[in-house]
């Protein structure tokens, strides 16, 4: 059986049997070992090169302070990537797989039917206690439905390095902590159902 067909079947099953039910039941889910070590390393090396070459700029705040960089509120450095840029083949492969996963969710996402995505945001927290205070990705209904985050941190120890993504599910009495470990893909609703924060990082994240 062709590899592409196996991948299609696997992604479709993951979407329908795991991603969709989790989003509806608890509002988020994650997949570990998504790309595998070899391809994940290719993505990591490209992002490291962007960081090393100074291609990342301070993240900006949306809302009333739109376009303003305030390091005490948001400490990441970012770059928007389409995936077709030179040297971004591994990133493009990752984006293609994520696109397929979301496509297979189809009309099963409640009132949402995702037809397109924004560019991908490459983000790096440079350590020194930088994080991102509690916020909502899409507080104003701008069309964003699902946030997908792919983590690239090898040998990450959250007790030592911090950097946990903490989700505060709307109407729930608990919080959910997601460690930013290598080759983990996270999905969650982008709207007010999932306020979240990036806790201070004490290593490059």
UniProtKB/TrEMBL annotation:
Signal peptide: none annotated. Residues 116-205 form the Fe2OG dioxygenase domain. Keywords: Dioxygenase, Iron, Metal-binding, Nucleus, Oxidoreductase, Vitamin C. It holds the Pfam family 2OG-FeII_Oxy_3. Its EC number is 1.14.11.29. Its cofactor is L-ascorbate. GO terms for cellular component: cytoplasm; nucleus. It comes from the Eukaryota. InterPro entries: HIF_prolyl_hydroxylases (IPR051559), Oxoglu/Fe-dep_dioxygenase_dom (IPR005123), Pro_4_hyd_alph (IPR006620), Pro_4_hyd_alph_FE2OG_OXY (IPR044862). GO terms for biological process: cellular response to hypoxia. It catalyses: L-prolyl-[hypoxia-inducible factor alpha subunit] + 2-oxoglutarate + O2 = trans-4-hydroxy-L-prolyl-[hypoxia-inducible factor alpha subunit] + succinate + CO2. PROSITE patterns: FE2OG_OXY (PS51471). This is hypoxia-inducible factor-proline dioxygenase. The gene is Egln3.
């Amino acid at each position: 059986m062709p590899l592409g067909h196996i991948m299609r079947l696997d992604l479709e099953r993951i979407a329908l049997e795991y991603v969709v039910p989790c989003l509806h039941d608890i509002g988020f889910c994650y997949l570990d070992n998504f790309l595998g070590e070899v391809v994940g390393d290719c993505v990591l090396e490209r992002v490291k090169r962007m960081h090393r070459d100074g291609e990342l700029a301070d993240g900006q705040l949306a809302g009333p302070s739109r376009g303003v960089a305030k390091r005490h509120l948001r400490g990441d450095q970012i770059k928007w990537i389409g995936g077709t840029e030179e040297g971004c083949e591994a990133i493009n492969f990752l984006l293609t797989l994520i696109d397929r996963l979301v496509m297979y969710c189809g009309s099963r996402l409640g009132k949402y039917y995702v037809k397109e995505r924004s560019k991908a945001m490459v983000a790096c927290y440079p350590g020194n206690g930088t994080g991102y205070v509690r916020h909502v990705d899409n507080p104003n209904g701008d069309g964003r439905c699902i946030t997908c985050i792919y983590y690239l941190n090898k040998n990450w120890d959250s007790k030592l390095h911090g950097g946990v993504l903490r989700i505060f599910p709307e109407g729930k009495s608990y919080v959910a902590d997601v460690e930013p470990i290598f080759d983990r893909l996270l999905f969650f609703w982008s709207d007010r159902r999932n306020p979240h924060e990036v806790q201070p990082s004490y290593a490059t994240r």
